[in-house]
Hints:
This protein is α+β, with helices and mostly antiparallel strands. It has five helices and four strands.
Amino acid sequence: MPGGQYSSAGAREAASASPRKSEARVNRRHRLSRSRDFDSVYRHGRSVSTRYLVLYWFVRENGPEAVPRLGLAVPKAVGTAVVRNRIKRRLRELFRERSAGLPPDHDYVLVVRPGLPETAESRGFDWLGERVDEILGKAAA
């Protein structure tokens, strides 16, 4: 385009033309998004905690194509919006990798405690995966 300016229509075309890897993302149906879903997990579920994470889980009624669903709660005390969104993306990816080994009729809410993003940044993605494995292991026990 002349002068290096881009129209929003051109940007939309470019964005829609890029291939998306559906297997690389947590499908929307695998997420908790409604307030009432979070409330039922908090009120009727069980919980375990570690230094950096709290996990709530709840057994729901099986429906067709039951899959484990994840909700993330990352309070503002954890950091700026950029920091909170980055840790959510990483946690969703870790959950997606581990979801095959989880019961299909469970809803999970993972609450991030302050200090996790900084520590995960300094220690790496593998360390964060170990923390997720740790809390899922405590939940299974």
